[in-house]
Amino acid sequence: MSSPDAAEPFDKDRPFPARLVENRLLNKPGSAKETRHLVVSLRGSGLQYKAGDSIGVFPTNRPSEVAELLERLGATGGEPVSPAALKLPAPIPLREALAERLALAKPTRRVLETLAAKATDAGEKARLAALLAPEAKDALAAWLEAREFVDLLAEFPSARLAAQEFVDQLRKLMPRLYSIASSPRVAPDDVHLTVAIVRYSTNGRDRVGVCSTFLSDRAAPGTTPVPVFVSHSHFGPPANGAADCIMVGPGTGIAPFRAFVQERAAAGATGRNWLLFGDQRRGTDFLYEDEWQECLARGQLTRLDTAFSRDQAAKIYVQDRLRENAAELWAWLKGGAFFYVCGDAKRMAKDVDAALHAIVATQGGMTSEQAADYVKQLKKDRRYQRDVY
User: What architecture is the 245-388 domain classified under in CATH?
Assistant: First the structure.
């Protein structure tokens, strides 16, 4: 990524070539997870952030995957290409397009149609025709879900695609957003991140999260440029330092609340802070445990409730802790507390939202409709905020 002129601000279109200055594993030995504390230096960028903002990171793809794609395409990597998804003013080398500009995952039906038109082997043509049959729509979706573009070139080698034909099938490699886990009052020249490193297998191949492993494996601390920009958010701690905060952040959802607590402590906020954190096991997955214990000792945290789902036979989650403490939660809300949720949108955030509605109805003596109206008003007043993904 080229650097802009000094007079121009760094943003999504002109990311700052930052440097990774710390890469530390947060989980202890024996954990089923790999969660890392990463520190990215913004020194010299002029970029500013606030608690609640996110950082956007432009990753690069794995060199091994790029090399295999070039081999299967029969290409050197120097071929000039103008991928349709990029709308470039001039061609770039194929290797650069595959390494830095294009997403190599999530193939679509369209690429199979292109391969079907090119395949010369009878068996491959039959397989492609079966996959593309109208009645195979659901099966095709599952089949594609388990594959990346390199798999398709490996499984249908008789379908020879020119470099330009291939890159026209690919989407643009998009930046990933990560909640910032630090306050600018504490770390004005750095952003701290709490990143779950994604590694898994499908179709007999090891897969990775492109950006999480770029940060953990490929961005050498102090040397490899990490192109970044600040994504400003309306998610943030109360402007009124006397207001109380209830923060629900399991897993990497803890990130912005580390920033919130740092911010409120540094600003001398007098409002109480209640943190609810959950993960798999206390012994291996209690992210920032020492820091939270220090915050409790200093009075920067009023209350810390944890839910470790696999430490007992029956799984316990943050929404269960909310229900167990329904009366106190209701008392905080009645007193004007702000309620925040960060993390998984598909399950956790929905379950927490359902628990909140039920608690408001039960503790407030309301009907479900009245409770829904109360929660809507919390949102309208910016007292119920979510940063979910």
Answer: 3-Layer(aba) Sandwich (3.40)
Residues in the chain: 389
Top-level CATH class of 63-167?
mainly alpha
**Residue 2: predicted pLDDT:** 42
Tell me, what DSSP letter sits at residue 197? Answer: P
Nearest-10 crossing angle of helices 137-145, 122-132: 110
Domain limits of the chain?
16-59+176-231, 63-167, 245-388
- Provide the CB-side half-sphere exposure for 389 (13 A, CA): 14
DSSP symbol at 161: -
Q: Would you say 248 and 338 are in contact if contact means Cβ atoms under 8 Å apart?
A: no
Nearest-angstrom CA–CA distance, 283 and 156: 47
* 172-201 residue pLDDT tens: 999 999 999 999 999 999 999 999 999 999
Residue 15 amino acid letter: P
Question: 91-96, long-range: CB within 8 Å, 24+ apart, which pairs?
Answer: 94/70, 94/163, 94/167, 95/66, 95/70
Q: For the domain 16-59+176-231, what is the CATH superfamily, name and number?
A: Translation factors (2.40.30.10)
Cut 0.70: pTM above it: yes
DSSP assigned state of 175: -
pLDDT tier at 7 (50, 70, 90 boundaries)? low
Q: CA-to-CA distance for 231 and 55, rounded, in angstroms?
A: 6
CA nearest to 21, candidates 44, 1, 38: 38
